[in-house]
Amino acid sequence: MSRVCELTGKKAMVGNNVSHALNRTKRKFGANLVKKRFYIPEEDKWVTLKVSTSALKNINKKGISAVLKEARANGFLKK
């Protein structure tokens, strides 16, 4: 499975390693992802999601129901 946040769509970015001699080689900046279980009281079930830590902060701030609703509106979640 790819390393993409299921709520925000964040994924790896591409950049350069730069040495002291300013030689550049390609590298990847991976997304900071965490696999986490959430309880959704409206549906009375547990859901496991792979989310970025910034999405986790949004869940703590707004609540899981509001964040899932936004993700569905933005097309990141099905159903």
Strand order of the largest sheet: 1-2
Percent helix range: 25-40%
The residue-averaged pLDDT reads: 93
Strand content of the residues, in percent?
35-45%
**What name does the CATH topology carry?**
Ribosomal Protein L24e, Chain: T
Number of helices: 2
CATH architecture: Roll
The coarse silhouette is elongated
Low-confidence stretches: none
Counting helices, strands and paired strands, the structural category is alpha+beta
| Cα-based radius of gyration, to the nearest Å | 16 Å
- In angstroms, what separates the terminal alpha carbons? 20 Å
H/E element sequence: EEEEHH
Largest sheet: 2 strands, antiparallel
User: How many DSSP E strands?
Assistant: 4
Taken together, the total number of domains comes to 1
The H-level CATH homologous superfamily, spelled out, is Ribosomal protein L28/L24
CATH class: Mainly Beta
Chain-wise SSE layout:
Layout: E1 13-18, E2 24-29, E3 33-40, E4 45-52, H1 53-62, H2 64-74
Description:
One of its GO terms (molecular function) is structural constituent of ribosome. Helix content is 27%, strand content 35%. It is of the alpha+beta class. It has a two-stranded antiparallel sheet with strand order 1-2. Strands 3-4 form a two-stranded antiparallel ribbon. Helix 1 packs across helix 2. The model has no long low-confidence stretch (mean pLDDT 93).
